Amino acid sequence: MNTVNVAMIGVGCISGIYLENLTNTFNRGVRLLGVCDLVRERAENAQQKYNVPKLYETMYDAFKDPEVDLVLNLTRPYEHFDVSRAALEHGKHVYSEKPLGASLEEGQALVKLAKEKGLMLGGAPDTFMGAGIQTCRRLIDDGWIGDVVGSAAFMICRGHESWHPDPDFYYQYGGGPMFDMGPYYLTAMINLCGGISSVMSASKKSFDRRVISSQPFFGTPIDVNVNTYVAGTVKYASGAIGTLFTTFDVYYPGQARFEVYGSRGTLFVPDPNGFGGPVKLFRPEDGEVREIPLMYDYKVNSRGLGLADMAKALIDGRPARCDWNQTFHVLDAMTGFERSAQSGRWVKMSTRYSRRPAMTKTELKGILD
Fold first, then answer.
1. The model scores a pTM over 0.85
2. DSSP per residue over 48-108, as a string?
């Protein structure tokens, strides 16, 4: 296999950057073979704009296509499980947008099926593979902050109903700030600090009802059916302790902080929802915070990088950096927060995680190691 043929299922808001990157930056070893969406016009527009060879009437037409090697699942969070399961059942490798599933049981079922079928399963976020987080990892691995003793990360905003064209699903099963934004932070956290052994959390729903102020559903009310204020604590397997706070309930002027604390200094981590910087370091001998130059490629929005890495893994017969070991560990932590908030106790993780290899700076952008 020299080229991995990909079928994209779901052509919504996030699809644009995938379409752009898969047909340009990551088009060596990856071929976007076809697209499918419940709203046919979306698929038609994507096919025309990006010269995609095939348009599938239904996702099952894509799953039955013998030319398709890998399914890119860009559906809404609560649909991820059904789409990924059906693709796996038809013998296709799967790369899914986050989260892997909307419950621990969904994740367990998908992992079990992928193992039985001998298929690759994984997915977003792939932002940790960008220049920002990879530079942070290099600094940690090279000892610039000494031994990691803890971390603190905060994702604070007032929700998506003021700007997103269809924000209702963010407040339904599979949504909420932890399931929507938590994967970016948790994925970065475990790539920088290692796997998590147990979690604890408190959470609440501050507002039962939201009103959409964006188009095209301006004025439409949303019933909130998930907790939107989640404060979590993690114990890393290393013994370090981290915090993760996510909320859709708070007005805030910009990105909140994300820090990793070490025995010799503190690392200020860039927004894990992006691929770039800035990366900042404070060590007592410096007496000031200094910005560190980014050491790797992929500083701009490079969504699709993880899929390209999975394709290269399929070609080379190696593990993918965004495989299910990572996405399922993140799901385990997020659902653990829910169980802890309900019980008021620490929850032991059911999964273990070992960091995948760091990125390698290759000679040509878009071609991975």
1. yes
2. HHHT-SEE-SSHHHHHT-TT--EEEE-S-GGGHHHHHHHHHHTT-EEEEPSPS-SSHHHHH
